[in-house]
From TrEMBL:
Top-rank taxon, per record: Bacteria
Gene3D superfamilies (alphabetical): Cysteine proteinases
Domain Peptidase C39: start-end pairs: 9-72
Protein name: Peptidase C39 domain-containing protein
One annotated GO biological process: proteolysis
Any GO MF annotation of the entry: peptidase activity
One annotated Gene Ontology cellular component of this protein: membrane
Amino acid sequence: MIYFSIFKKFKGYAVSLETLEKLKIPVIAYIKHRKNDHFTVISGINNNFVRISDPSLGQRTLSTYQFKTMWETRADDRLKGKILVILPKDQSSNSTFFSKDIRLATTQAIKLLASQR
């Protein structure tokens, strides 16, 4: 069981699939499954496949194409999908990481998440 009191921040980002592939931690992805809004955990990803862990769908490995058809829900040509990242309490928030400039915040978030593991 996850105790959410150990977490400090829940932060949403719009990202590209290429950026998603660089992350080294599981994230929650917003998808459309059979025309319904749904959230699922991305537990692994590479150039060809996306591994999801989902209470409704179970443990599944999807082709990148299958995943993209469900995940790319934004009209933005660059940042096509949405993710939710859960950061631990000990993560410092006194930097510009939580900036109001979404491009700066997204870049910094990706660098931070890619460095953790």
